Amino acid sequence: MLLAVLSGFLLAVAAPWVHRALGRHSGWVLALLPASLFIYFATFLPQISGGGQVVIEYPWIPGLDIQLSFLVDGLSLLFALIVSGIGFFVVSYAGRYLEGERDLGRFYVLILAFMGSMLGLVLSSNLISLFVFWELTSITSYLLIGYHHEEAKSRKAALQGLFVTVAGGLALLTGLIMMAMVGGSYELHELLTSGDIFREHDWYLAILLLVLLGCFTKSAQYPFHFWLPNAMAAPTPVSAYLHSATMVKAGVYLMARLNPSLGGTEAWLLLLGLLGAVTMFVGVFMSVRSTGIKQVLAYSTVMALGTLTMLIGVGTETALMAAMAFLLAHSLYKGALFLVAGILDHEAGCKDFLQTGGLRSALPITAAFASLAALSLAGVIPMFGFVAKELLFEAVLEAPALAGILTFLAVVSAIMVVAVAAIVGIRPWYGPRVDTPKAPHEAPPALLAGPVVLASLSLLFGLGAGLVDQGIIAAAAGAVHGAPVSVYLSLWHGFNLPLLLSVLTLALGLTLYFNWDRFRDSTRFLEVLNRYGPEVAYEKSMAGMVWLSEWQTRVLQNGYLRYYLLTILISTVALVTVTLMTHADILIAPDLSDVMVHEAFIVAVLLLAALVSVTTRSRLGAVASLGVVGFCVALIYVLFSAADVGITQVLVETLTVIMLVLVLFRLPGFLGLTPTVLRVRDAVIALSVGLMMTVLILAASAVQYADSISAYFIQESQPSGYGRNIVNVILVDFRALDTLGEIVVLALAAVGVYAMIKFRAEDNNSSTTLEK
Amino acid sequence: MSPQFTLQSLILRTTAHFLLPLLLVFSVFLLLRGHDEPGGGFIAGLVAASAVALYMFALDIHSAKRVLRFEPRDLLGWGLLFGVISGVPAVFMGQPFFTSQWLELTLPVLGELKVGTPLLFDIGVYLVVIGGVLLILLSLAEAED
Q1: Which of A235, A289, A440, B76 reaches 20 to 30 Å from B101, CA-CA?
Q2: Do A732 and B143 touch (CB under 8 A)?
Q3: Domain boundary residue among A517, A538, A557?
Q4: Which one of A726, A728, A756, A760 would you mutate to disrupt binding with B, by most B Cβ within 10 Å of its Cβ?
Q5: Are residues A724 and A626 in the same domain?
Q6: What's the Cα-to-Cα distance from A28 to each of A14, A113, B121, rounded to whole Å?
Q7: Is A63 at the interface with chain B, CB within 8 A?
Q8: pTM of the model
Q9: Could you say which of A680, A709, A738 is where a domain stops?
């Protein structure tokens, strides 16, 4: 199982070389991985179809109780099969679709890494590893949306998708950690059995909101739906795979997954049911209003995600069964339709429905299977989409609350869905021929394989609903419900209200399609709303963040060393003083009885040198007196038997003086430009820093909370460190990691100074050449 | 080279020729004995850097660069690399990163010798210090040109 999840990442690493070696056939070869994964996951079917589950654990970070554990039950298996199955078609399709692209190797890396992350997400049983895979899908999605990174539009869409989903991801992480704290475990298979603990806990609402924020942003629920249509800047195989069949369903997956723990409350029903229904309505409305091929499909995906959320919110057995059936149906027909959209673009150059028509004679096979998939989208008997739609109507009619409003929204949406299906399934293929940018011709087998198989499956599962009923759909619904469900899938439910609604929506939907142009004109006034939509809020908040960071950079990073020092010193003094004041019980009693004469003498010299350095009128004098201060400090180290530190101090002082001398020549003459007031201010600050440090050190040495660690080092230095110089043993052995950090900082500082001097020199050179 | 940096003292220039190798040998001595007596990579690195700085003042930057042979930037990189590598053997011994590993050798003439990863680490510190200090010093001096 570990290998199955990680194989996507492993192959991703090798993909560029595979691509280079195999050239145009690389797509088929790389697609073998998702194909074999599909077969591997299919072998789990017998085990879980009765409602069983398999848990597989590997230790990952045992110290933090984080395991790499996998949970295979109906829900995760359904997703894993969809991810690997559609993955096969998408990878082989992409090999042909993006043939000859310079970056095809990179594309394979990303799409395979995405597949690995998505499988990890749906199979993870540990909340933390689930979150890690969740974020990995966001990152690979970001890179894939921005695949055409030369275009500003792609980059913007990619960033938008990333920001929205990652912001939600942060909320999700908080929610998951709170869940683990309440439930006492990070393991899903343990948490899922303890629903009442969550529902009755004080944190329930907070957990629910945080988790849902993550799910809603990921699954493009209203009002976070706007990133999904923009994400269509990605190449079409990516849209088909990430932004329709799999990644955007991750939020739906998590809501379904957590339904046994968090579901079944009023808040759950209201939030998911209502927001899902609103998303469904907004999505399909925007879909009918659009004309761009990928835009129509993207908004109808938003509709599907809303529908799934609504059904999970309703949460009855029928609703969950409907959700799982709809999930499968949507993945099949939407995957097929997106791939058809790619064919239209690739073979005829069409990107907009207004530029298409009568392509049936040029692309007969594509036309046939596109229409078949569209029939499933519309929910026409005998497609699998019809089975799902019947259950959907049944579920909203029986909803425990809000039944009226949900049914109304579902029916209105279904009418528009039929219109969308007609736009996709009729408009490009039938009617008078419209001139296309490219001379249209039938697609090659690599491009056709996906639409043909997926659309055929839509028909097959419709005719034989029993094929997937107990095998996987009921098992998945059972996993969501937390108990076995007793609803069956069937094509024919008899003459009842759902059937009547189906017929009604078909008729009204077709009417809408034939008045499509008039509908778009009559709703044009609604475009005003775009100016107040959530996307505008997103733009505004991003602009606000940029403004805020500019402002704080201007204030804090002002480029004047003196202000940096002032800020640091004043805040240190203030914070330490407040702490010392509030802990006034610390007794400070300096004991001066054992001070020797030579020690007092060194201190006196030190003070004198410090005084000279701030009052002298000569720059060289200031440097020299600072040097005296440094050497006095070194002497003190030596007196207190810290030979190493003393030597270091002497050497550093020497080098500092050398550097200062080198810099000195660049500076203008020493002028007393600072007004007296400022000098007094600086003196006050300097003295208070000194005073604060003195008090702090006295206070610190007066208090001893724990035994000094020195004894341990002195004792252990020789036997376990093989060295008699304790300072050195500490530096290179006991605390080697700290020292490594320090030398890294040292190296960075040196490079920083180097860059500053070099660029400065270059600037000067270029300006002098300009003057010449 | 602007005249203000070459002190143009014949005595200094002559002594620098002798002092540089002596100081460098001394720095290696400090580096190697550092585990038992005062010394170690940091101090040794500072001594070596001061030696090159002295040479630079006595002659000029170009001679100093020539005598250094390595780019200070490269020394930084090598030093960091040594520092990190010295922590790796422990991982293969199944111990936490940076656990020191020692090898006791008995050499025919020198007698008992202990070689361990902390020495490699100290050499890394040594190189980073030399590289860092000289990178700043040399580029400052060069900017004066």
Answers
A1: B76
A2: no
A3: A557
A4: A728
A5: no
A6: 15, 17, 49
A7: no
A8: 0.74
A9: A709
Within 10 A of B105 (CB to CB), how many other CB atoms are there? 10
ipTM value for the complex: 0.87
Cβ contacts of B73 on chain A, cutoff 8 Å: 751, 754
A324 and A435, same domain (yes or no):
yes
If asked whether residues A551 and A654 sit together in one domain, one would say: no
- If one counts every other C-beta atom within 10 angstroms of the C-beta of residue A64, the result is 9
Whether A298 and A409 share a structural domain: yes
- Nearest beta carbon to residue A655 from set B42, B50, B122: B50
Query: What does the alpha-carbon distance between residue A573 and residue A690 come to, in Å, rounded to a whole number?
Result: 9
| CB A7 within 8 Å of CB A40 | no
- In B6-35, the residues whose Cβ lies within 8 Å of chain A are 34-35
Mean pLDDT, all residues of chain A = 87
**Contacts with A644 from chain B: Cβ below 8 Å:** 38-40, 43
Give A187's DSSP letter. B
Residue of A nearest to B97 (CA): A737
Please give the helix or strand (H or E) that residue A70 lies within, else none: strand A66-72
The 10s digit of each residue's pLDDT in A574-605 is 999 898 888 766 666 667 777 888 888 999 99
- Its domain, for residue A370, covers 265-557
Structural domain count of chain A: 3
Residue A302 and residue A421 in one domain: yes
Task: Write out pLDDT tens, residues B14-72.
Answer: 888 889 999 999 999 998 888 788 888 899 999 999 999 888 888 888 888 888 888 89
Say yes or no: A578 and A550 in one domain: no
8 Å CB contact of B100 and A737: no
